[in-house]
C-alpha cells in the first residue's frame, strides 16, 4: 500500500463514526462498534465496524467484518460498495471529498441514503454490475480460458464479483460464491439486467466445467426480453445465440463479428434487431429448444427483410465443439457456413492467429 493510501486510510479511521453515519445511515452505534446489515448499507446487525482502535494493525479503527458472510475490509471498501464505484481512483476521490482534502471533482457524492433496489429489478442488476470488477486476472477470466475461450476483446459487459449472493430458495440461507457477472443491455447500451454464473473457487474440472457446485449455477435478473449480452457493436451483420460461452467460443474463430448472447432459447427468439441489420447469423444449440428458437427467429428476420443464416455445431453447442474438437475444427466449420464475403471481413484475425500458432 502506498504512503498516500495509508494516510488516507488512517484519516478515515480517525473519523470512523462520521464515515459510518454518512455512508451507512441505516446502522447505529453500539459501544465501540457501528452495527449494520452488510457493507452495502442494508439494515441489520450482522456487520460491525470498529470505531475505536489503533491507526493500523490488529484491532484498527475502521476495520469491519460481516459475521454472516465472512466479508471484511476497511472504510475504503465501504465507500466503494455504497457508492457503487468500480475504479479505485474514484474511491480515492470520494474519500478525499468526504475528508475535505484537495481533490478533482467527485464522481460520487451521495446526499441521501441509497434505498435498496427491488430484488431482481433492473436497478438491482445495475448496482450488482457496478460493484463488480474487470475479469482480467480474476477467476472469471480463468474460467473462460479453461473453456477454450481466448477471444475476450470487446468484453466490457463481463465482470467478476468475488462474493456474489446466492440463495437456493426462499427458505434457505444466503450463500456467497465468486461469479461471472454479465450486463444485459438494450440496443442503446442501457443495462436492463444481469446474468450470473457462479464459479467453483476450487477451479475447473471436466465434471463441473468450472461452475459452482450448487443447484442453479446460472441465473438472470432484470428485464431480459428482447435484450442481450453484447460483444461488439452491430451494424449490418450480427450473430446471435443463447449462451455467453457459446457466443464467445464462436468469437474465438470469428473475432471481428459483433455477437449477442440472449441467455435462453425463448429470449433468443425475441431479440431486438438493430435498424441497420441486413444479415443475421443464428448460432443455435443442437436441441429441440434451440431448433424452435432458430425457426422463430428466422421467421422474424425474414419479415424484417433481414437475411437469416443458421450456424450449426457438430456437437451440442459451439463451446463443446471448441473444447472437444479444437479451434482448428471449429474455424474450418465456420468458414463453410459463413458467407464468403463475411469470411474475408470477419475471420481475418482468426486466420492470422491460426497461422502463427502453426508456425510455433
Topology (SSEs and partners):
Blueprint lengths: L2 H12 L1 H8 L4 E3 L2 E4 L10 E4 L13 E3 L5 E2 L1 H9 L4 H11 L23 H10 L1 E2 L4 H8 L11 E9 L8 E11 L5 E8 L19 E5 L6 E3 L5 E5 L2 H10 L5 E3 L3 H4 L10 E5 L4 H16 L3 E5 L6 H8 L1 H11 L2 H7 L1 H12 L1
Parallel strand pairs: 12-13, 12-14, 14-15
Antiparallel strand pairs: 1-2, 2-3, 3-4, 4-5, 6-7, 7-8, 8-9, 9-10, 11-13
Helix pairs in contact: 2-3, 3-4, 7-10, 10-11
Properties at a glance:
single chain; 360 residues; alpha+beta; 5-stranded antiparallel beta sheet; elongated
Mean pLDDT across all amino acids: 87
Percent of residues in beta strands?
Answer: 15-25%
Computed CA radius of gyration, to the nearest angstrom: 23 Å
Report how far apart the termini are: 40 Å
Q: State the helicity in percent bands.
A: 25-40%
Overall spatial form? elongated
**Helix/strand-derived class?**
alpha+beta
Strands of the largest sheet, in order across it? 1-2-3-4-5
Described by its quaternary structure, the protein is single chain
The sequence of SSEs as H and E is HHEEEEEHHHEHEEEEEEHEHEHEHHHH
Largest sheet: 5 strands, antiparallel
The count of β-strands is 15
* Spans where pLDDT lies below 50 across 5 or more residues: 103-112, 352-360
Count the helices. How many? 13
